Amino acid sequence: ISNMEEKFSRLIFIPIAAVIFLMIGYQYVCPADSNTCNFRGHEKGLVQQRLPAFDSLYSEPEPDEDFPAKITSKFNFTERDLDRHVDFNIRGDDVMVFLHIQKTGGTTFGRHLVKNIQLEQPCDCMSGQRKCTCHRPGKAESWLFSRFSTGWSCGLHADWTELTSCVPVVMNKKDKKNAQKSKK
User: Fold this and answer.
1) Where do transmembrane segments lie in this chain (predicted)?
2) pLDDT (tens digit per residue) in 38-86
C-alpha cells in the first residue's frame, strides 16, 4: 500500500509543481503593473473580462483642456520633489556621487548616467571598455564618482557611510596624480 501511495503522491506532485512554476514564470514575464503581456485583440479578450469598476483604476484620465497637464505618479512624491533644480557646476569642484543600492535598478541607472546625461561635457564611453571617462571641460579631473567612471574604488556596493569617508580620499589621490602628470 505504501508503494501505491508513493506513486500517487508523485503523480499529484508533478502537475502541481508545473502549475506553480508556470504561475511564477508568468508573474516574472508579465508583472501586474506592466503592459508587456497585453491579451487584448480586436475583440474583447481575456483582459476585458474583468469587472468594469476596475477599469477606472487602470485607465488614463481624460485630458482636461481647462487645466494644464499635471504630473501623475503612483509614488508619494510631491510636484516640488519631482520638479526640483539642482545647480551642478561641472567647471568647479562639484562631484556627482552615485550611491548604488543593490536590487533597485542601480546598474541600469548607472549606465544611463554615463551614456545619456546632458551636460556641457558628458562622459566619453568607448565600446568594449567597462569604464567611461567623465572629465571636466579642459581638465583631467572627474566630475562623476560611480562604478562606471571610477570603478568600485570604495568597495563593492559601498554604503553611505563608506562613501562619505572614502570619496574625498579617492578623489584627492586622483587629482594629485593628474596634477603630477600635467606638470611632467
Assistant:
1) 12-29
2) 655 444 444 444 444 444 444 444 555 554 555 555 667 788 877 888 8
How many Å apart are CA 173 and CA 167, to the nearest integer?
Answer: 10
How far, in Å, CA of 126 to CA of 162, rounded?
A: 29
Query: What number of H helices and E strands is found in the chain?
Result: 5, 2
178 phi and psi angles, rounded to 5 deg: -70, -35
What pLDDT, in 10s, does the model give residues 103-132? 999 999 999 999 988 888 899 999 888 899
Rounded Cα distance, 126 and 131, in Å: 8
Q: Is 142 helix (H, G, I), strand (E, B) or coil?
A: strand
Q: What percent of the chain has pLDDT over 90?
A: 29
CA 124 to chain CA centroid, Å, is: 21
Q: Could you write out the DSSP letters of every residue in 7-69?
A: HHHHHHHHHHHHHHHHHHHHHHHS-TT--SS----SS--SGGGS-HHHHHHHSPPPPPTTS--
Catalytic residue among 42, 85, 100, 157: 157
Please say whether the beta carbons of 61 and 70 come within 8 A.
Answer: no
Task: Judge whether 167 and 97 are in contact, CB under 8 Å.
Answer: yes
Contact between 155 and 162 under an 8 Å Cβ cutoff? The reply is: yes
